[in-house]
Specification:
Blueprint: H1 2-26, H2 38-56, H3 61-74, H4 81-84, H5 91-108, H6 111-123, H7 127-140, H8 148-165, H9 173-189, H10 198-209, H11 217-246, H12 270-288, H13 298-307, H14 317-321, H15 325-343, H16 346-355, H17 364-380, H18 385-403, H19 407-419, H20 429-436, H21 442-466
Protein name: SLC13 family permease
Pfam family, one: Na_sulph_symp
Transmembrane segments: 12-29, 41-57, 88-107, 127-145, 177-200, 220-243, 272-289, 295-313, 325-342, 412-435, 447-467
């Protein structure tokens, strides 16, 4: 009975907060009228409903997304039904779909196991080599394997095996460290490449849609690598210091007594080499060709067709049906909502309301810090980073104009803050998968996640002024 009451209370509190925010922000008369027009007020009501559905999940993801689209039409916020679905016309949705299918193919033929075997061979005689080598691999692997989830699933058996090889207990300090690396650092590291998952893809697409910049693979890589890798190194140092202080392991160093060491065997078949060569050619196409000449979506689409040919039969109907179509609905709906916020002026009005919390006569540095804290808090309440960037991005563009910071610089700031929110397991899929193993405790997750998020926020602020 107590659990039922607690669950109801958890659902009621956000509703009370939402009602209070709506009352204070939407309908207060400041002497010259309310902050927002009637249409903008309805748009913000819809935004609050969407945030509540995505955070509290009172409905299945697909049903909640359809409800948001239905309310968009019922509130009269779009001129036609087709306008409500304009977010589903974005090529970014289909790029995410293509990469998800290709990542499954990558794992299907054992390329992942081949890489895991090489790392195991490199680190089998030295714990220090393993501790150093694992984060290096995680930071470099997004260039080859875009999906963070695929990388996690590829490396989890490896770190489990290494933990047993070194004679540690299941919840050892080494095992915790490894899970944090393939969970948290994996998520942070994936942001350095455009192809490093849907979140990066969505951000690059938004930069184009809002005429900020048409950025290529190499340019994006050079902009993000220094801050992301420096931040990752600092997080790893913090992580090691914390886990070393908190850990109380008894280590068996006699590796010869362990007769349960797993071996990794991969058959280097024609399909294996076809996938490896195909992925290499796709990545080279992204790096070498301008996107106006070869659109980002074209290489993965062609590669899917090649892998589905009868002689290879790597992409099947079952694989297509197994795609996360609920997430597809959520992203498409988020796109539509983000476009609506920009087109009817709601994003600009919200930016001006946010500016009320920032002293007008203060420096740009203070404004950026305050804005970063606002984004940090907003991101905390979003489960999916892709949804957060889509909803927040139009606000960022308007805010950049108000404080005199370049659109690209402030966009990258928000991208890093949103992408590195790691406090709760639900903030990113890889962190959730690591937490679900039972190796990581709630206390460790919260402390390291909070410190990691704050470190990356600080790095993003410094990068805005010193690098971007």
């Amino acid at each position: 009975m107590k659990d039922i009451y607690s669950n109801h209370l958890k659902n009621v509190i956000p509703l009370i907060i939402i009602a209070g925010v709506l009352s204070l922000v939407l309908f207060i008369d400041t002497g010259g009228g309310t902050f927002f027009t009637k249409q903008q007020q309805l748009t913000l009501v819809l935004l609050m409903v969407a945030v509540y559905i995505w955070i509290m999940a009172p409905l299945p993801v697909g049903a909640g997304s359809l409800l948001i689209l239905a309310l968009m039409i019922a509130f009269g916020l779009v001129g036609t039904v087709e306008e409500a679905f304009q977010g589903f016309l974005s090529s970014a949705l289909y790029f995410i779909f293509a990469l998800s299918i290709l990542s499954k193919v990558f794992v299907k033929v054992g390329v992942d196991q081949s890489i895991a075997g090489m790392i195991k061979k490199f680190s089998k005689d030295s714990i220090v080599k393993s501790i150093i080598g694992l984060p290096i691999l995680i930071l470099l692997l997004p260039i080859i394997l875009p999906s963070a989830i695929a990388r996690f699933k590829m490396l989890q058996p490896l770190v489990d095996s290494l933990n047993r090889l070194y004679g540690f207990s299941y919840d050892s300090t080494y095992h915790k460290y490894s899970m944090f690396v393939i969970g948290m650092i994996n998520q942070i590291g994936t942001m350095v490449v455009i192809t490093g998952g849907g979140f990066s893809v969505l951000t690059v697409q938004l930069l184009r849609d809002f005429d900020v910049v048409d950025i290529g693979w190499s340019e994006w890589f050079l902009l993000l690598v220094p801050p992301i890798w420096i931040g990752s190194i600092l997080i790893i140092m913090m992580m090691l210091a914390y886990l070393k202080h908190a850990g109380k392991d008894r280590v068996s160093t006699d590796l010869s007594k362990n007769d349960k060491v797993e071996t990794i065997e991969v058959e280097y078949t024609k399909r294996f080499w076809a996938v490896l060569i195909g992925f290499a050619m796709m990545i080279l196409a992204w790096i070498l060709f301008d996107q106006d000449t070869v659109p980002l979506l074209l290489p993965p689409l062609l590669l899917i067709v090649v892998f589905s040919l009868p002689k290879l039969n790597l992409v099947t109907s079952e694989m297509i049906r197994g795609f996360d179509w609920e997430n597809f609905l959520l992203l498409g709906t988020s796109f539509s909502l983000g476009i609506l916020l920009a087109e009817n002026g709601t994003a600009d009005a919200m930016a001006r309301v946010l500016m009320l919390a920032v002293p007008e006569d203060t420096s740009i540095l203070i404004k950026v810090i305050l804005f970063s804290l606002i984004i940090f808090i907003l991101r905390f309440f979003f489960i999916v980073p892709s949804s957060a960037i889509i909803v927040i991005f139009p606000i960022v563009i308007s805010y950049a104009d108000l404080i005199g910071v370049g659109d690209l610089q402030l966009s990258l700031l928000v991208f890093v803050i949103i992408g590195s929110m790691l406090i709760l397991p639900i903030h990113t899929p890889t962190v959730y998968l690591a937490f679900q193993t039972g190796v990581v405790s709630s206390k460790d997750q919260f402390f390291i996640g909070l410190c990691a998020s704050l470190i990356m926020t600080g790095i993003a602020i410094l990068s805005l002024f010193l690098y971007w």
